[in-house]
Design goal:
Helix 2 packs parallel to helix 13 and helix 6 packs across helix 8. The chain is α/β, with parallel strands linked by helices and 335 residues long. It contains 13 helices and twelve strands. The chain has two domains: 134 residues, 3-Layer(aba) Sandwich (Rossmann fold), CATH 3.40.50; 139 residues, NAD(P)-binding Rossmann-like Domain (Rossmann fold).
């Protein structure tokens, strides 16, 4: 029976949503459950293991892998470009299950779009205070907020049409949006599948009522939305980030939000938890979510079970659905 190392944060090992997944691993070999955070901590257990299941840390580099007996399989929830190159370079079969987060993250992106356009958080807060504004047939539409809008028919941009971006694009089809896509890696036929069109980023900024960031964090996307591009966002635009904070010049975003003619819906931040004195907390046009897009029981169960499915496929000599291949490395976070 193979030796199987499951290295995840402590709470994962006792999570009820993972009971069946952990039971499956017990049935596949001798299971050792750990929560190592550094290469030094994991080294001995890595040398023992035939198969490894882990998130993105500790980083497994060339030296650490060379010091181990041949590993039959490594399954990652997420990983950096550097780690992917090291593991594939060691000829280890690697599977990556981060696509398992995509349903929940895409749902959150759609939620943030609709909440920003329809001002649902504002209406909810006003109702709690007893200050809600009811529709008045006499004054409508003169007293309607012009920034409260339908999603239907708007021009929407998605930056990064990976698993999350594609799932979101599929959600947008019934809204009949004019979909613009920025992604240097995705094929044109994938964009066409969602009735979208490829555009340059600056053209997207000039045209779109809603822009959603779904891209990986790497050298090519760092501060992709710099001060100049944030200033160029259309008045009244909705700017959603469910990707990584490093894609945005956050100081410039705050300054633009202070002008009052932009709406931002953010699930990721430069510093997490967000500082108590962050200006974002006092901006009525900033909708904030504490990095909750993907972390649901269903997502957590899915990302582990995807990896177990792939390990079982490897043992049975079948193709792995979530196998990492070299041409996918560029779409990973660099760090």
């Amino acid at each position: 029976m193979p030796n199987i190392l499951l290295n995840l944060p402590p709470a994962f090992h006792n999570a009820e949503c993972l009971t069946s997944a952990i039971k499956r691993l017990h049935g596949l070999g001798t299971l050792r459950q750990t929560s190592h955070n550094t290469p030094e901590e994991i080294a001995d257990d890595l040398a023992w293991a035939d198969a490894v299941f882990m998130w993105a840390w500790p980083a497994l580099d060339d030296k650490l892998l060379a010091d181990c007996a041949p590993i039959q399989f490594i399954g990652h929830i997420d990983m950096s470009q550097r780690m992917a190159r090291a593991e594939l370079g060691a000829n280890i079969p690697v599977s990556l299950s981060k696509a398992g987060w995509s349903p929940a993250v895409a749902e959150m992106a759609l939620t943030l779009i609709l909440a920003s356009l329809r001002r649902t958080s504002n209406h909810h807060a006003a109702a709690w205070r007893g200050e809600e504004k009811w529709v008045d047939a006499i004054t409508l539409p003169l007293d309607a907020d012009p920034y409260e809008r339908e999603l239907t028919g708007l021009t929407v941009g998605i930056v990064g049409l990976g698993q999350v971006g594609q799932r979101l694009a599929s959600f947008l089809i019934p809204f009949e949006v004019d979909l613009h896509v920025v992604d240097p890696y995705v094929h044109d036929d994938v964009i066409s599948r969602y009735n979208g069109r490829r555009v340059e980023l600056d053209a997207m900024i000039a045209a779109c009522d809603v822009i959603v960031l779904c891209a990986a964090a790497n050298e090519g996307t760092s501060r992709l939305f710099n001060a100049k591009r944030i200033a160029a966002l259309r008045p009244g635009a909705v700017f959603v980030n469910v990707a990584r904070a490093m894609l945005v010049d956050n100081d410039a975003l705050i300054e633009r939000l202070k002008q009052g003619n932009l709406f931002a819906a953010l699930d990721v931040f430069e510093h997490e938890p967000l500082e108590k004195d962050s200006p974002l907390r006092n901006l009525p046009n900033a909708y904030l979510s504490p990095h909750r897009a993907g972390g649901l029981h269903g997502s957590i169960r899915r990302v582990i079970e995807f990896l177990i499915d792939d390990y079982e496929a490897l043992l049975a000599g079948r193709d792995r659905r979530h196998a990492l291949v070299a041409d996918r490395i560029a779409a990973l976070d660099e760090y």
